[in-house]
Design goal:
mainly alpha; two-stranded antiparallel sheet; flat
């Protein structure tokens, strides 16, 4: 047995080294890699599997949106001056239905816009706080936990129409709410009390939805993390702020995003609980439905398109601003792993000895 070492100043002719490369040929790492047959086949399979979903989305989302955009360029049928009868065709008005919202005729639109924004901000904020509290309660181990989980999820399982009728009975003039308060409040009349009634009913119904998604995020957190924190002397509030919130953040962001998109399209609850054409609770969806029911399809389509853009921009801003940390952390981890793997193969290693 003799130990021989590679003499200094010499380079082994291995694939990928400078001596093994041809003159003028770029290194293997710098040459673009061609997609393998397996990768191309997987891409075709993925496109084939996704195509039914894209077809359905095109039929139920893209086509109606384009039709609404086209309809919003036409006005209301008027009287034909030549015949004196109502015209059979809608006149082309271009962007007039959109520009009218900046005139006095758009006061109703802006009222509905601010009502929609108010309901979204208030209800989602309250539902997030209450939903997280519900999730923490359901996550604890105690006797009767299954019964508590079932009772908390009951309001979310009730259809919105039934929930609206239930709360309309509660907020009646001689209902349970006024009996508990001890004085008369006109909850279903037009005013701030109507806003409060819609907020209470919506929070009661959909807070369990956020609690359910947050509970799913809590159940994947290892118990060893909390045990280590308790050994280090962390209080319950510190564990919640330093451990629970950061680890449950992805599930919480998804729940809040879904609730924001749902609240921006609020229609059935205020429509059933308070009624139509109530200025204090009229939302953009209610406004578009009211215009369409009055055969004003052009303005109704314009309001629907503006609501679609509003929801789209809110979702895009939400994902870009609040969801960027999740994507960034994952990308940073991958970059760190790649840089670490590259650093392991850098030159300057000591030549290995070969045993003969």
């Amino acid at each position: 047995m003799a130990d021989t070492a590679i003499p200094p100043g010499t380079t082994a002719h291995r694939p990928g080294t400078a001596a093994a490369r041809r003159p003028g040929r770029p290194p293997a790492s710098a040459r673009p890699r061609r997609p393998s047959r397996a990768t191309a086949g997987a891409g075709r399979l993925a496109a084939l599997l996704v195509s039914p979903t894209l077809l359905v989305l095109t039929i139920v989302v893209l086509y109606p949106t384009l039709m609404a955009l086209d309809e919003s360029l036409y006005g209301v049928k008027g009287v034909d001056p030549r015949t004196g009868f109502i015209s059979n065709t809608e006149p082309f008005v271009g962007l007039k239905n959109y520009t009218d919202i900046f005139t006095q005729a758009g006061d109703r639109f802006w009222n509905a816009f601010w009502n929609t924004t108010f309901f979204t901000g208030v209800t989602v904020s309250l539902e997030t706080v209450i939903g997280v509290a519900m999730a923490l309660i359901m996550h604890r181990a105690f006797r009767g936990r299954g019964l508590v989980r079932a009772s908390i999820l009951v309001p979310w399982a009730i259809p919105t129409a039934i929930s609206g009728l239930l709360w309309k009975w509660i907020f009646n003039a001689d209902g349970i709410a006024n009996v508990l308060l001890g004085h008369q409040v006109l909850w279903t009349a037009d005013g701030f009390s109507a806003k409060a009634a819609v907020v209470i009913a919506d929070v009661w119904k959909t807070a369990p939805f956020i609690g359910l998604l947050v509970l799913a995020g809590l159940q994947v957190i290892p118990k060893e993390v909390y045990e280590a924190a308790r050994l280090d002397g962390a209080s319950a509030f510190q564990q919640f702020r330093r451990i629970t919130l950061p680890l449950v953040k992805p599930a919480l962001l998804v729940a809040v995003l879904f609730r924001c998109l749902d609240a921006l399209r609020m229609f059935d609850l205020p429509y059933i609980l308070i009624g139509s054409q109530k200025g204090s609770v009229e939302t953009l969806s209610m406004l578009a439905q009211n215009e369409a029911s009055n055969v004003r399809f052009g303005p109704a389509s314009a309001y629907a398109v503006l609501l679609f853009l509003y929801v789209f921009l809110i979702a895009l801003a939400f994902v870009r601003l609040l969801g960027a940390d999740i994507v960034g952390d994952a990308g940073g981890t991958k970059k760190r792993k790649r840089s670490g793997s590259r650093g392991a193969g850098t030159p300057g290693r000591r030549a290995r000895e070969v045993t003969a």
